[in-house]
């Protein structure tokens, strides 16, 4: 890795601010759009399950392109790829705000995912290249905290913006993105790995994106088409086949091409278990986020603003418990701490199953579940990330981090698809349907806890 002249203290502070702001935007768009779903449903009443792709179009693209974006930056320059990603993300945000229909909105969300992957896939590398070793710890801590802050601010900020128009959920990105690009052009020092010989396997990446997208589409459409219908069966089989082709191609690609899936990483048992636990946990987390928005607004009739405020305690507690959770992981092992997090999350969802009724009762029936799920997120995310990165040799940490993050985001994608398979968007807001969604999230979180416990025995 080589860099130009060492940056000054002022440049380092500005660099950290720019990178953190850009990463915040990319993370925020994973959370803020959930609160806009009721407004999108009202704006496009005939869209039905197509609205799921406003979420999934972003997460699938974001997850699949994280590792390729990092390799592209290593080869051609991290500053160049980072700023290009910011431009793409900001322009796509304008497109989302001006979208004239559901599918144009989905298309711009996919473009947002491309930009978000370019920004997130290069942001940590920019910090590591610019900051001297003695100052990297605090910089990485700030970078890592950005995701938790984005999760905490997503519901209330989204609720306030949606009161004006759902389009403001996307427009809010524009001034921050433009400012970050302008400041970043002078404040960021270029860095790259000049000997980087690898090129991304484009065909394998496209196969992976297509496989996940077709599988998600089959799950989302299954309730309407029928689970046993020819269309559903063929769609799901096609998704499995495309994903299988991506795996096979990744196993056979060699030479100067980097596979879409870094399969050699999954030969490390601890990394495989941490990635599986993260995928299961984020599937439950993604399903829970969207489901609770609909229950509070449709089931209990809250305004979007009030629902956003009501959903805030969980992410806030997640942010506050992440650092103590990391300390607990260092004492008892990250796998065991993450297992406790999965159990806490599952218990929080079970609390809603046991206590939530048709009559609103936020303080006693809903808030305790929010606190338990928030604690579960704080314990799980930090410790699973630690377990995944600590299981790999230094040369594989960058690729491993991108692969682990991709597993998390793909888990969230399938969580949303599974939720809409058991609780379709147009199915109303009865308590029986709400229970289905909560059982799904509780089961996925419990599965994550079991896998994390197996990880605990290894670490």
Question: Can you tell me about this structure?
Answer:
The protein is mainly α and 459 residues long. 80% of the residues lie in helices and 2% in strands. The radius of gyration is 21 Å and the shape is globular. The two termini are 31 Å apart. The protein has 3 domains: 1-190, MFS general substrate transporter like domains (Growth Hormone, Chain: A); 202-252; 265-459, MFS general substrate transporter like domains (Growth Hormone, Chain: A, Up-down Bundle). The longest helix has 32 residues, at 133-164.
Q: Can you tag this structure with a few keywords?
A:
459 residues; single chain; Growth Hormone, Chain: A; 2% strand; mainly alpha; two-stranded parallel ribbon; two-stranded antiparallel sheet; 3 domains; 4 strands
Q: Helix count, per DSSP? A: 18
Total domain modules = 3
Which fold does the CATH topology of the largest domain refer to? Growth Hormone, Chain: A
How far is it from the N-terminal to the C-terminal residue, by CA?
31 Å
Oligomeric nature of the chains: single chain
What is the strand and helix layout of this fold?
Layout: E1 2-3, H1 9-28, H2 32-35, H3 37-43, H4 52-76, H5 78-98, H6 102-130, H7 133-164, H8 168-171, H9 173-187, E2 191-192, E3 199-200, H10 202-225, H11 230-252, E4 257-258, H12 269-299, H13 304-310, H14 313-332, H15 334-355, H16 362-390, H17 397-422, H18 431-458
Parallel strand pairs: 3-4
Antiparallel strand pairs: 1-2
Helix pairs in contact: 1-6, 1-7, 1-9, 4-5, 4-6, 4-10, 4-17, 5-6, 5-9, 7-13, 7-14, 10-11, 10-17, 12-16, 12-17, 12-18, 14-15, 14-16, 15-16, 15-18, 16-17, 17-18
């Amino acid at each position: 890795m080589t860099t130009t002249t060492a940056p000054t203290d002022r440049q380092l502070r500005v660099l950290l601010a720019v990178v953190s702001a850009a990463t915040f935007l990319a993370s925020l768009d994973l959370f803020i759009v959930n609160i806009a779903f009721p407004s999108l449903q009202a704006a496009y009443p005939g869209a039905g399950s197509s609205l799921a792709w406003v979420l999934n179009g972003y997460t699938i693209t974001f997850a699949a392109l994280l590792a390729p974006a990092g390799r592209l930056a290593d080869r051609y320059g991290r500053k160049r790829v980072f700023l290009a990603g910011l431009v793409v993300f900001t322009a796509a945000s304008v497109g989302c705000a001006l979208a004239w229909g559901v599918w144009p909105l989905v298309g711009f969300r996919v473009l947002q995912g491309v930009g978000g992957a370019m920004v997130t896939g290069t942001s940590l590398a920019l910090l590591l290249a610019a900051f001297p070793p003695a100052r990297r710890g605090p910089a990485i801590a700030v970078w890592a905290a950005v995701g938790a802050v984005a999760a905490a601010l997503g519901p209330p900020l989204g609720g306030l913006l949606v009161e004006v128009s759902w389009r403001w959920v996307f427009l809010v990105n524009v001034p921050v993105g433009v400012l970050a690009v302008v400041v970043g052009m002078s404040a960021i020092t270029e860095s790259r790995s000049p000997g980087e010989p690898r090129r991304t396997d484009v065909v394998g990446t496209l196969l992976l994106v297509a496989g996940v997208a077709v599988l998600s589409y089959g799950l989302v459409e299954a309730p309407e088409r029928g689970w046993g219908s020819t269309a559903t069966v063929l769609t799901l089989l096609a998704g499995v086949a495309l994903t299988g082709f991506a795996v096979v191609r990744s196993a056979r690609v060699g030479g100067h091409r980097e596979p879409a899936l870094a399969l050699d990483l999954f030969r490390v048992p601890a990394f495989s278990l941490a990635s599986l636990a993260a995928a299961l946990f984020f599937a439950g987390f993604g399903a829970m986020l969207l489901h609770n928005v609909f229950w509070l607004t449709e089931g209990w009739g809250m305004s979007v603003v009030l629902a956003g405020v009501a959903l805030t305690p969980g992410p806030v507690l997640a942010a506050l418990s992440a650092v103590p959770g990391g300390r607990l992981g260092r004492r008892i092992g990250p796998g065991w701490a993450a297992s406790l997090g999965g159990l806490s999350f599952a218990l929080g969802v079970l609390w809603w199953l046991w206590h939530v009724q048709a009559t609103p009762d936020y303080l006693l029936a809903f808030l305790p579940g929010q606190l338990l799920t928030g604690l579960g997120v704080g314990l799980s995310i930090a410790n699973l990330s630690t377990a995944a990165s600590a299981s790999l040799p230094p040369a594989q940490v960058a690729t491993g981090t991108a692969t682990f993050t991709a597993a998390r985001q793909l888990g969230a994608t399938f969580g949303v698809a599974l939720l809409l398979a058991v609780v379709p968007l147009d199915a109303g807001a009865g308590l029986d349907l709400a229970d289905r969604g909560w059982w799904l999230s509780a089961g996925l979180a419990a599965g994550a806890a079991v896998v994390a416990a197996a990880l605990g025995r290894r670490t």
